[in-house]
Amino acid sequence: MELPGLAFAVWMLICFYAPVGGYPNGKVREACTSMVPCHGSSPQLSPEHTITVNGTEFKPGDSIEVHLSGPVFEGFFIQARDAEHLESPALGSFMLADRGVSQLLTCAHTKNSAVSHTSKAKKKHIKVYWIAPGNAPKRVQFLATVVKKYKIFWVKIPGPIVSQPNALSPTPPLHATSEAVSTSHPVSYLSKPFNASSCGRTKFCIRNPSNCDPESASCFFLSFQQEGSSVFIEMSGPSEGYLAFALSHDQWMGDDDAYLCVGEDHRVRAITAYLKERSPPVLDSENALEDVSWRLADGLLQCSFRRSIHLPAHKGRFNLDASYYIFLADGEASEGGVIHKHQQQPLITNGIYNITGLPQDIGGSRSPRLIKAHGALMFIAWITTVSIGVIVARFFKPVWSYSFLFGKEMWFQVHRMLMLTTVMLTSISFVLPFIYRGGWSQQAGFHPYLGCTVMALAIFQALMAGFRPSRHAPRKTSAMRAHGCAAPRTEGGC
Q1: Computed over its alpha carbons, how large is the radius of gyration of the chain?
Q2: CA 229, CA 391: separation in Å to the nearest integer?
Q3: At CB < 8 A and 24+ separation, what contacts does 451-459 make?
Q4: What is the pLDDT of residue 79?
Q5: Which of 275, 309, 339, 465 could form a disulfide with 256 if both were Cys (CB 3.0 to 4.6 A apart)?
Q6: Is residue 209 reached through a cis peptide bond, with omega within 30 degrees of 0 on the bond before it?
Q7: Please, how many CA atoms are within 13 Å of residue 49, restricted to the half-sphere of its CB?
Q8: Alpha-carbon distance 248 to 318, whole Å?
Q9: Element (H, E) at 331
Q10: Closest CA to 119 of 142, 147, 145, 155
Q11: Number of other CB atoms surrounding residue 104 within 10 Å
Q12: SS3 for 270-302, per residue?
């Protein structure tokens, strides 16, 4: 078969195979609308599995326990939809009871609005929690697709319908329904997400990305608004576990005043803590926060609370009328509200700010400028200058053998200039992380060791080049071989 014909045959095979490839890892976002697995066969008619819930009524923010059970099955896909319009997009958000067998998916641009399997391991029962959104319809129905085997599956198995109580009562205000949770003050449910309309006017706001909408599932939002002798604080972001911010005298974690909103038992708990060095936060036994409210919906964790500007009776609490660096972090929380280390670098303001001073609308950076410069210089050195230098030495030697620059062959002068530039950029880049950290970092894993190795080899190369023998010296061949072994080569080896 000719090559074009073979390529066409492979392309056709891929096209016909892709739709029936299946999703053993549960990444079934392509089926968000139809809930039909791409298994190349028709669904079964009489379902063998059932969906049950622990209640028939809900209010925005309520958590409903959802169970899927029946004979052994391999895969599943669960959504909640408007009972009056079952073709409408998935709504609300789910929380997991067992991350080993189930995972959260984003459907219709709503984070965590569906649940699926993590593998094709056999299972008989699945339990998840559905969090009712603030804009939920009056009646919601749960639907499930279940895969028993690759060719045997059921689509949109109807589950129970849950409904809101009599809708004639007005929507509760921002700090309405009180519940008892593990804080010393009443806690209420937020009836709607935060907004940024007052940022820079009456609120001091931090947003990431800059100018993002707090209602967006990708926006981290923190605001402060002084009200008399207290400050009202709002915090929001796409998190399944916890959100936290801290006030610090420097840009390092440690000796900081921290505030956390932690998802616990399908509620949110607002607590204060003290950060000591790079160890887990020390939670306070007494809570200094008032008017705590929260919301878990649409993939967002949101909470608000009030704190007095001065708290002399609470050790470790900073005065809010001074200037600080502000940290904003998120991470996972396991059952019982146990928090884990944040998975991404915290957002840190570029300067110190007084949150009770002039209202501002600012951003921050998850990568400090020195670290950005470190990465940029390393990229230029090892992707640009060293690569061009190797190419010049390998391919331009015969072309530029009779061209001279400052008394030396052109190719050699260009090669030497590029390699010296590489060593210079690497040296500068090598020093920047130590300046940023103030020494060696014990938390950076193997990266510092790799950097030291690269720096040592770069200096070794420069020294070998500086002390290389003359062209006709007996040791010339050995020196060139050592030079090639320590440098990247386009072909061959040592």
Answers
A1: 30
A2: 67
A3: 454/382, 454/426, 454/430, 455/426, 455/427, 455/430, 457/486, 458/422, 458/423, 458/426, 458/427, 459/423
A4: 95
A5: 275
A6: yes
A7: 30
A8: 9
A9: strand 323-331
A10: 147
A11: 18
A12: EEEEEECCCCCCEECCCCCCEEEEEEEECCEEE
Q: Which of 303, 256, 307 is nearest to 286 (CA)?
A: 307
Say which DSSP state 83 is in: T
Q: At what angle do helices 410-437 and 447-466 cross, to 10 degrees?
A: 150
**Consecutive H or E run containing 106:** strand 102-107
Strands 347-348 and 323-331: antiparallel
Average pLDDT, the chain: 82
**CA dist., res. 384 & res. 252, Å (int):** 33
Q: How far is CA 161 from CA 105, 139, 142, 235, 490, in A?
A: 22, 7, 7, 33, 66
Strands 267-275 and 333-334: unpaired
The amino acid sitting at 217 is A
User: For the segment 43-61, what is each residue's pLDDT rounded down to a tens digit?
Assistant: 888 899 999 999 889 988 8
Q: Which two tokens stand for residue 174?
A: 């921002």
Q: Which SS3 state, helix, strand or coil, does residue 151 take? A: coil
CA neighbor of 264 nearest in space, from 213, 204, 336, 323: 336
Which residues in the chain land under pLDDT 70? Answer: 1-27, 166-187, 278, 285-286, 335-337, 443, 469-494
Q: 153: closest CA among 120, 105, 126?
A: 120
Q: What separation in angstroms does the CA of 23 have from each of 37, 39, 68, 95, 140?
A: 8, 9, 19, 21, 27
